[in-house]
Amino acid sequence: MAIWFRHLLTDGLALRRPQLKELPFVLVMPVKNRIVITASSRLAEQQGAFTGMAAADARAAVPELVAIDDTPGKAAKLLRLLGLWCLRYTPIVAIDLPNGLILDISGCAHLWTDERGYLKEIVLKLRNAGFDARAAIADTPGAAWAVSRFAKISPIVAIGKQSQAIASLPPAALRLEPEILERLQKLGFRTIGPLLSMPAPTLRRRFGTTLLTRLDQALGKINEVLTPIVPPVPYVERLPCLEPVRTKVAIEIAIENLLSALCLRLQAEGKGLRKAILKCIRIDGRTVQASITTNRGSHSVSHLFKLFELQVAKIEPALGIELFVLEAAKVEDMETVQEQIWALDRGLADTALAELLDRVAGKVGAEAIQRYLPAEHYWPERSVKIAVSLTEEPQTAWPEQMRPIRLLNNPEAIEVMALVPDNPPKTFIYKGKRHSIIKADGPERIGREWWRDGGEHRDYFVVEDSEGQRYWVFRSGHYDGGDARWYLHGYFA
């Protein structure tokens, strides 16, 4: 689908400044020592002020004309905003400067009954918003672009009928450069029809490859690549509503229908959902969102629906929701598990455990639940990492030596007194409190990572004070080196 905004810049300005709607106004910009009109409103065009005219000539024809300075780049920004709005109708929207959008509507039109209802829905919404929009649907972007701007027939081109649709249109419908259009005009080509019957070598010799490329793009012989403003999500489902939805029950029914369609696709491709985003587009133009995450891939409709049930209360329908969009923001491959007769202890591979964690995360937040794996580092504070999923396997083994229950992120300096320099401390002072040591075990030497950074080795001791508290302390460097220092690194109890 190609959408043409005939008065893009002036319509956008009139929306921001409503007092301009009843006035003939234009946007102007200096060009080669002249003030030239770059965009004109519909009312200004009706009175004789057109794009490309000198502002002085336009004022002579329209004395009450209002001229406003144009800003470069405004069209691209406005088209991007309109393109983001169109994402509710299709996941692929591309900007077509200076005044249009191209939509890839493959597999989307049936949600609005047919292509005619789909086109009518979009165009009426844009016109009600204040934009003078016109659109057309064809098999190719080139044919849709031509019909939307130059055709006076039906805006929907039948499948495979591109050549008939563009044959009666002027050569400008092929998006050609002014030099080529001028040459075609001089040679008497008033429509595209005669060009379709001419041999390709003749056209290439007279007009270059651009004309042939544009013809082939319009006819579908060459694919035209679109650059979407937002990279499309591979797995997405849409559900338009005949009437605005406002109740909790209706929202839950919509979510269940979307999940059923999405999970069917995921299951067929051996994928599992890790993160989903539900976008609810209201009739006032606003979008409210709700998202869920899972600890492992899932395509269970019942489980995912329970997670969304916890989020329904956060959705504010206001005057009503007219469109639901469910995106699978993150998926992962799933292995098909064979059913077993005898129940086994599956540990982290148990689906019930993953579903339980998902429900808990939906209530307390996913960041409150973390799983840790050993990391290949010597220093204890670097020897653990957060797992990205329940199925991630450790790359190394956990240390066999005893480690404290609570490990400080950064070791904290302590003052120590030892009877013999190489022995464990007899007392240490931490945060102003003196601890008398009655038991000690060690040392356990952990060398420094010479390839990563500098630093001495560490000699760790497990010590117990007179109050029964156990600590993990270490001496950095050799005791006879003169610069050895003691640190507290963790608590056992």
TrEMBL record:
InterPro entries with a match to the protein in the record: DNA/RNA_pol_sf, SulA_CellDiv_inhibitor, UmuC
Coiled-coil region list: none
UniProt protein name: Protein ImuB
Any GO BP: DNA repair
Keyword Cell membrane applies: no
Keywords: DNA damage
Keyword GTP-binding part of the UniProt annotation: no
PANTHER family: BLR3025 PROTEIN, BLR3025 PROTEIN-RELATED
The UmuC domain, residue ranges: 13-148
